[in-house]
Amino acid sequence: MANSASATASVRSSNAIVRSRLRKNAIIRALSIAATVAGLSLLAWILGDLLFKGFSTLSVSLFTMDTPPPGSAGGLANAIIGSLLITGIGILIATPIGILAGTFLIEYGRGSTLAEVIRFVNDMLVSAPSIIIGLFVYQVIVAPMHHFSAWAGAIALGIIALPIIVRTTQDMLQLVPDALREAAYALGAPKWRVIVVVSYRAAFQGMLTGVLLAIARISGETAPLLFTALSNPGRTTDMSSPMASLPVVIYNFAGSPYADWQNLAWAGALLITFSVLTLNIIARSFAPKTRN
Predict the structure, then answer these.
(1) In whole angstroms, how large is the CA radius of gyration of the chain?
(2) So what's the pLDDT on residue 105?
(3) Contacts of residue 178, Cβ cutoff 8 Å, sequence gap at least 6
(4) Looking at the domain covering 61-286, what would its CATH class be?
(5) N or C terminus of the chain with fewer C-beta within 10 Å?
(6) pTM for the complete prediction?
């Protein structure tokens, strides 16, 4: 009888523990689902408002005419051209430096003190506020030159993109099996050729993904351009002069009291949003597939 009572008590205790865990699991699951629904609902609200107000302003003139004075017809052609130039040159500056730095960390400096210092500095740059980078470039380039320029804006965006490319290159090269390198060395290939032909080829998709993500990261930056490229109401390709860009035009027009400028700001925001979305989709399509 004593053993039977002890077994019954043990079963009841075990059932109570199971019921308690199930209740906790149900509560956590409900909270997780509620948080997910709340986040997705907020995102859907923002995107819906952006689509509704942005699509109503889309027209051919948006891509052919420059930013207008208040009360006049116009578009965002100068800002679109400026954004493409500044972002493109910024990526051209950051990509080779980032790839070479990531290559050094894995292929040459693995385990060295210098590599650890570079990783630490790179991690700091990843989390650095963009406005700080804009102020730095302003002090180093804009202030000594005594005028704003698109070159300064491109350098600021390049600095922001650099740590993303370094980190991605480092991670992708680290995934390349050492056996591939050793096989190439066994065939008599020099180190530089092993890196270019073996390591880069194996990590190409991931490295390209990092570059695309860096473009998406900097394409909507406003603060660095306010301190460097500023803006320009006209269309120009002169990188040594101030140049308009979509983020700065959106910032200026969204806070204006003029309805036509506000409509152009909504259209510009829609263009940037879909550009970033497209780049992220392309980056995911190029990302290496994980096999289970």
Answers:
(1) 26
(2) 93
(3) none
(4) mainly alpha
(5) C
(6) 0.87
